[in-house]
Amino acid sequence: MDYQLDLHGQMLMEQYHERQAVYHRLAQEALEALRQALKKQHVAVIALEHRVKTELSLAGKLELKGAKYHTLDDVTDIMGMRVVTFYSDDVDKVAAIVNEIFKVDWSYSVDKRKLHRLDSFGYNSLHYICTLPKSVVDDPDIPLLNELRFEIQMRTALQHVWSTLDHDTAYKDGGVNIPREYQRQFNRLAGMLELVDDEFSRLRNVLTDYRRQMLALEASGQLDKVDLNGDTFRRYLEAQPFARLNKRIAAINQAELYPVPMMPFLRVLQKLGFETLGDVNRLIEEHSDDAYRLAVSQLGTTDLDILSENIGLQNLCFVYVLKRGGGPAELCQIYDWLNGSDSGNMALAKTLFEQARTLSFMTI
Q1: Beta bridge partners of 47
Q2: Which of 118, 202, 269, 322 has its CA 20 to 30 A from that of 101?
Q3: What averages of pLDDT result for each successive group of 10 residues across the chain (364 residues)?
Q4: CA 316 to CA 234: how far, in whole Å?
Q5: Backbone conformation region of residue 133, classed left if phi is above 0, alpha if psi is from -120 to 50, else beta
């Protein structure tokens, strides 16, 4: 292909052709080293990409800026990598990992986040120029692997999306003067996205602190201060708080217990007004005997020998409703919350109510 290159540019292009295989090997080694390091540090990223500049791309760069490059080594982004993170503070974590496993050329690296320009959001990447140390790869036959520089861009998902949109609209290029009104709209959008980016990171930190606080309260036994939610209820279930009641109920018919998901009961408990793990704990302490009596009325005349592990919690919920004056309609709601609305749920509720009517805990 015929490029508009001067003699110096042509020499650089020839050198590029000679080194192409090395650049591709460099990309593979660097990518795998970074992927393993991120995995080891448990840093989740949205994308980890790499590319080696095509001949066309390099030629275009040399046509525009060839005079500034004394040698091909001065073109530091022939091999480039991009790491896209979920949160803005993860960019700094990735940067620390990059600094740990690669040699960073600080004289060429730049933190564009420090530009603080309203219209620069999509370009606020952290750019490091690196080389591979021998601790990553040491191939005496290819010493260039430890000498060639490459670029790593680190940015958030929102920065990446904005950069792509901004590039596609190309409103700053093309020789067209865009009215200030439209430029201002772009800048406002960039500012809004930057705020959203920061708020996502702040919110994650707040939620992390909240989870740690809940864990500390659980560990200290202060269950009345532990909110009842998906995280806390899941951990609570790991301690098998309903196992003792389940075994008592299973013993009625010498039945076998088989595991079933318990998380659906979170909705039931919340609907019944339970707000903390302390509330759930009191449900067990105060109503287990009556839940057992209800199970006896249900199972005593049957030969059921297989029961699900939710039998204890289910009966606790039934007893809780019944002892507060609830009837078939309220029992039917529990079935609806667990299984979805169904015409058969009311029949189940009426049968259950009749079985419970003669029990001592009934308030009617």
Answers
A1: 84
A2: 202
A3: 80 92 96 96 93 92 83 92 92 94 91 56 75 95 95 90 65 56 70 78 76 77 90 91 93 93 96 95 94 91 89 96 94 94 92 91 67
A4: 18
A5: beta
What is the Cα–Cα distance from 42 to 37, expressed in whole angstroms?
9
Instruction: Output the pLDDT for position 49.
Output: 93
The CA distance from 133 to 146, in Å, is 6
What is the residue type of 71? T
Lookup: tokens for 170:
């190309």
What is the reported pLDDT for 81?
96
Cα end-to-end span (Å), the chain: 93
Whose CA is closest to 279, among 213, 216, 228?
228
Name the token pair of 116: 């603080």
Can you give the pLDDT at residue 344? 92
pLDDT at 356: 92
- Complete domains list, the chain, with CATH: 7-196 (3.30.460.10), 230-356 (no CATH)
Residue with tokens 């299973």: 250
How far is it between the farthest Cα atoms of the chain? 102
Nearest of 124, 105, 128 to residue 116 by alpha carbon:
124
